[in-house]
Amino acid sequence: MAFVHGKNTVITLGGDDLSxxxxxxxxxxxxxxxxxxxYGNDAHxxxxxxxxxxxxxxxxxxxxxxxxxxxxxxxxxxxxxxxVRQPEGAGSGLPQxxxxxxxxxxxxxxxxxxxxxxxxxxxxxGTIDTTPQV
Length: 134
Known about the structure:
mainly beta
């Protein structure tokens, strides 16, 4: 097993590569939990249900008119687009997650003594395709 540095992560949203503007991303997978406990049990019994998940991405704001985060992400709020995340970078055989996501919000943060940052929250819509890169 080898440790993997996050600096090589590649992330695209709606076909646009946002890697150069992103310094943090997260893909959370979850599932519904259903209590199926019946009489006579001394503890809860659970079954899994539908899978669910969210993704977040954030980074340093860049005002590049065509490719910066505001130009790419802000118009996508409220729409479903493809998210591709390559946590070990691009390359044959490396892991890749591809999923449709609903872009639920885009935020710009302007601290007085630091760089402007941006973030986006995404709701997964459907199953994640975890096929390695070819």
